Each structure stands twice: as C-alpha cells, then as structure tokens.
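Pilot study result, target chain (344 residues):
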Amino acid sequence: MHETPAPAPRKKVKLALQGGGAHGAFSWGVLDRLLQDDRLEVEGIVGTSAGAMNTAVLADGLAAGGPALARQMLRCFWEGVGALAAASPVGPTPLDRVLRPGSMGFSPGWMATDLLLKVFSPYELNPLNRNPLREVLEKVVDFPRLRAAPGPAAFVCATNVLNGRLRVFERRELSAAAVMASSCLPQLFQAVEVEGQHYWDGGYSGNPPIFPLIYMGGGPDIVIVQLNPINIPEVPRDMRAIMDRVNTLAFNSSLMREMRMIRFVTELIDRGDLDGSRHLRLFIHTIDAEAELAALDASSKLNADPDFLRQLFELGTARAERFLAEHWEAIGTRSSTDVEAKFC
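Predicted structure:
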C-alpha cells in the first residue's frame, strides 16, 4: 500500500503594491492570479495609494475567507470603482477608445476638470470634501474585522503634510481614513485627518516603503508589483506629460533608494563583511508592465472606465502568469530581479 506523499510546503511571499491611480487595476490582475496558486502564502502586504486600497481589500479577504474570498472582494471593489466612473462625465470618448486606448485626451469632461485643477484647490472645488471612492471602500472592507482578525501583516503609508514624515499604519491601526490618507492626491482631495494629523498621498515618501516588510521578520521574498515606470521611451514635451513624469520620478525615488540600500547590504553579505546574513538577505522579485504603462498618458491614471480597468486587469493577470512560469524556482532561493540593473 502506497502512502500519499505529503504536499510540498507553500512558499511564503511578501507583497509590495505601488500606487498609480486607476493603474492599480493592473495590481488587481496580478493579485487575482497569485491568489489562484495554492503553492503560495502571503505573509505580509504593504501598499501606497491605490496599492493601499488593494492592501486593505486583500488583507480583509484573506483573513475572513482565504484566497477565494479575497479574489471576490477585489473584484467587487474594482467593479465598484468602474461603476462610479461609468456615471461620471469624466471619461473616455469613442475617439479616445479608438486612437489611444486608456487616454481621455478628447474628453470634454477631462479637459474641463484638468483646467479647473490647475486653477482651484480641492478646498474650493469640493468644500464638503465628499469622496465617493471612500464609500466604495467601506462597502467592501470590514475594517473592525480587518483590525481584529488574524491574517497576514498589512501596512499602508501616508505622508504627513506638516512635517513631511512617512506614517506607516499597521494592521491594528487600519481604517478607511488611513487608506484614504494614503491615496490623497492634494490636487484632487483635501488632506485627510487621522488622529489629529493631516496626510497626503504616501507616494511622496514611500511608494511603497519596503522596510515594514523587513522589520516584520518572516521569509526573505518580496514581490514588488510596480506601476510607475522607471524607464520611458522619450523625453516628455507637453506640460501634462512633463508633470506626469515629475510625479513619477518623485514617487519612484524612495523605492529606488531602498533598493540601492538592499543591494549594498547584499554585496556586504556576499563578500562576507556582514554577519547575520540569514536574517538580512532579501530576495527581490518584480511584476510589472513598464512598456505598456509608460505608453499611457497622464489622464489614464484617472480613467476608471470599466473597459479600461478590465484591460489592465488582464494585463496584470498575464504578467503574474509569466512571473510564476519563469521565476517559480527562484522564490525562496534567490532574487529573480537584477536589483542593480533595474533600480540602481
């Protein structure tokens, strides 16, 4: 009589989810595919902006019902975002869909909104400070359950407006306000108050920060789901493209600094100059779509049209599938990303 072999232990990974507005639907696709692989276990998540929203939904879903519920909740959240956009005058026109999928460059609603945002602050345009996105988030995520239930470590970050410091909200501190603080672009929304402090988007100080995943302990594998392209094909020439690149550079800078430090520590370990390599060595992996996302213009980050979100979801799913096929063996043994070539 043959005994059934015991299943192989699941590989543990930590997820670092970048922010990027509507491009966060790419991360949705990545997460959906990773959650279908029962060989993986998520032990920690950190996110900024759209990545913070994905973090909250994912962490709550995993704690409440495991991967299947997490997938369902992520779909519900992003479909809710798409429903908001479908009812909004700011959306792509048929010409946008044909000539530049993802763009809203021909949309009168987008043109008017873009002009108003250059002249008026959100305190003038939205004095009641209403944000329908918060309502979608609160319908999907049960924050008291999220804070109390056991599950993977979860962190979201925001930038303190008054002192510029990065604030990392741990799982036990997570609330709708904390997540909205992490995603508060000051051109669009009033600063979000949490515990008497005011916050803007976490991307200004960490997009996302890696150190919470290091400090928490656990396994060495960190999978970065990257939305903001490091490389672009040409120099921006119109003002919208220039400002979009300025924001991308600012939002990538903290991550690149951390990656340089990780590379430096890894070199010290490899040379034998640093003890404790078992605790300090990290394996870095990335899932991205640099070329495809770099080709999209600035308006695409505010384009939550359901068809566009679905395209990003499918792109994320395909890239996660490729990552698993090409780099499964690297998880737990080595970095699949050349940190020096990509970030340094």
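One observation from the pilot: The first helix runs from residue 24 to 35. A full batch analysis is planned for the follow-on phase.
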